[in-house]
Model the fold of this input.
Amino acid sequence: MVSTLPVLERFHSLQGEGAHTGRSAFFIRLAKCRVKCPWCDTKNSWTEDFSTQESVTNLSQEVANARHEGAAFVVITGGEPLHHNLNPLCDAIRQITTSQGKQALPIHLETSGVDPISGNPNWISLSPKRHALPRLELLNTCQELKVVINEKDDLLFAENIANKTPRFKQPLLFLQPAWNNKEGHKLAIEYVKNNPNWRLSMQTHKWLGVL
Ligand code: SF4
Done:
């Protein structure tokens, strides 16, 4: 039974990416990532060195407080959150937010998809990587597929990976230019203009200087 998790940071802000952009959310960023993307903008999340062990009970209480202050959902991100068993944390969040006399607060998960699913999240934002392919179970169950665009080959990868998602229940498809990459921006914008199945996802929190 996991009673603590390594937490890098947690904060109440606005979701900056994907389909829920602009909505109030409480973020829990867990430490550890073995995927090691060269362009990663949270390299301090790769190890537990900058994190503190936080109890699942305290974290779920913080989520409940954030809901009271307006958070519409909680986002579990990383690092790679599925390196950890998320069942105890998600169970605790569901339990405490249900006890507020409302439906449980929706749990969103941001993942690269390299590990088995845990926590039974309500929304999975899958951001697959060319060098560490996601598991089929994540491709089959994600609600949004968000591919980071650095170079031309990423567009080909985006199409290939989108073709592996179920035809009858395809996720929303997003191209997200890598931060500070002019080429990535140009490629993503042009591609979305010419391919209506795809949408552009910008890291609006960074543009706006919002945490
Ligand atoms: S999966 Fe995410 S946290 Fe891990 S290295 Fe890649 S971008 Fe960074």
